Amino acid sequence: MRGPSTRHDVRADQGPRRRCQNAIDGCPPQHISDTLPSLTRSSMDRDTAKQAAAEAAAQLVRDGMCVGLGSGSTTAYALEFLGRRIQAEDLDVQGVPTSFATERRARTHGIPLTSLDDTPSLDLALDGADEVDDAFRLIKGAGGAHAREKVVAHQADRFVVLVDPTKEVSRLGTQFPVPVEVLPMAATPVMNALDAAGATPTLRTADAKDGPVVTDQGLWIIDARFPDGIENPDALNRRLCDRPGVLDHGLFLDMATDVLVGRPDESVDHRSAS
Ligand code: 5RP
To answer: Does the 5-170+254-273 domain belong in CATH 3.40.50.1360?
Structure first.
């Protein structure tokens, strides 16, 4: 299993740069930040940390690379930084998106796109995560893109995960459920199986639509919460992969090669697997 071996502080040295113009969560201007309640301040800290990790990730891309483009708000910042680099340095870079949302964002930022049909081997994949433990194991899929994200990450020589410190956990499953993408007709049997495995399964429902979230593949997502976290991620992985009707799930084991943890002070802790 891959695990952390080296740590480099890649404290960003570009000065007061940052502040993505299209910040996903929206950053209030600095001059009003002093009066903001602490909750807002902590979300600003998180946003700064996400941007720090995202910028460090974009800096890993080299001319001529094919890059897997993950999904979620942290990766969205990386796309913006990468788009700026492509423009400023005239880089020849192509990206493979992991969701419709990322495809649209990448186009907005001028990142040329390709597919695994044309480019099945990738140099790098950049993506966020919902949880990461000390052994580089992840839970992903809060945005419902985990199936494509796993395919793309698997095709990459390096799978770089970018997170803020709230994503670091000592045990997987303590903060986020494991999303399980299923054929709609298999939802009830899979929920029963998850229940038998000690999870509390719920069908993910949409905010701006009545009914279930429908993924980019036209499938449904069951979120499996484990009240005390996941005791044996490998066993759960096997159990889910063996289950008919499951397309894929959000446990990413033995996949990440690098984890970039951005901090609110704009430093970045870069951990590389052995
Ligand atoms: C989407 C994902 C995201 O990468 C994950 O949810 C992290 O998102 P964010 O950077 O917005 O916290 O797995 O399926």
So the answer is: yes
What mean pLDDT value characterizes the chain? 90
Q: Closest residue (by CA) to atom 3 of ligand 1?
A: 72
Give the closest residue to 75 by CA, choosing from 51, 108, 93, 96: 51
Q: Which residues line ligand 1 (CB under 6 A)?
A: 70-75, 127-130, 140-146, 149
Residue 6 C-alpha to ligand 1 middle, in angstroms? 24
3-class SS of residue 271: strand
pTM (two decimals): 0.88
CATH domain 178-249 topology? Alpha-Beta Plaits (3.30.70)
- 3 state SS of 133: coil
Burial of 174 by CB count in 10 Å (0-12 exposed, 13-18 middle, 19+ buried)? middle
Q: Is 149 a catalytic residue?
A: yes
Share of the chain above pLDDT 90, in %: 84
Task: Give backbone dihedrals phi and psi of 139, rounded to 5 degrees, phi first.
Answer: -110, 130
The residue whose C-alpha atom lies closest to atom 5 belonging to ligand 1 is 129
Q: 129 pLDDT exceeds 80?
A: yes
The per-residue pLDDT for 2 is 41
Tokens of 163: 């997170």
pLDDT for res 40 = 77
DSSP 142-210: TTS-HHHHHHHHHTEEEEEEEE-GGGB-SSTTSSSPEEEEE-GGGHHHHHHHHHHTT-EEEE-B-SSSS
